Batch of 2 targets.
Target 1
Amino acid sequence: MSLWRIKDELGNPSRPQKTMFLVSAFFDPLTNRTLQNMINGIANVTGNQFMLEFKVPPHLTFLQIQTRTGQDQLEQALKNLKGKLKPVPLTFASCGDGIPNVVFAKVRKTDELKSQMNLVYEEIIKIPDIKISPHYLPENIFPHVTLGKTLTREQQVVALDYLNKNFSMFEGILSEVALTCGKPPYPLVHFSLR
């Protein structure tokens, strides 16, 4: 099954359009369960089911990439990182809503986490015909886990109130990495860091 969307301005199949890929990190089972419970709680109190309907798992995005022709190279680049990336202890330090229509858990940006993110960036940036979102360049990245998305301003207020009552700082482990595409995210390459 092809993941490419082929379509010109008139809707006729002819020219590949850029497709978005994510390189994301996933967590140990306890951390995953804690984050998923927060996602479920926010969906419940706001009525916004986006995260559940699109089956968005708790994840930390390292890179957001667009390409027309580089899918095979992206897959190989991620495979090249197997054995080089290591599990990383994480601190979920706070929650917030500084991104429009989103509430999130902020991850403390440690040297160990930055090092792993840089390894991924340095491997991916070698590929021609890719565009990396400027929000995910090493100097700009704001490590966070989205807990609610496409929220109205009123829903954001309710979600943040819920998080303020239910969130406390906790530790976790970044234990898996995947290259994904589509909604819900479809893993193209996926491996454990242990």
Target 2
Amino acid sequence: MEKNMTLTYGINCNKSISDIMKKVINKVSTPVQLLSRYYSNILEKEVTSRQTWLLIEAQTAFFAGIMPADYPIVARLLFGAWFIIALHKCRKSGL
């Protein structure tokens, strides 16, 4: 007696993976959209998602250089350079 098993792979699998990816992207982008609205209200002009990411980068660079008091001077200079570059990116984006 011969045992045969048929495995199917088709559109349904691809569609479900696509649906899962869309849900994950929506869940991840929700906080960025909320921050975009917050920054838009504070700055009184429309802020895009890219500009929001640039503002997050600038804030992270600022706090990384300011908050830890026991960093060596070289690390502080690197964080300062990162902060200046992040501010330059924000300015080029129109913020």
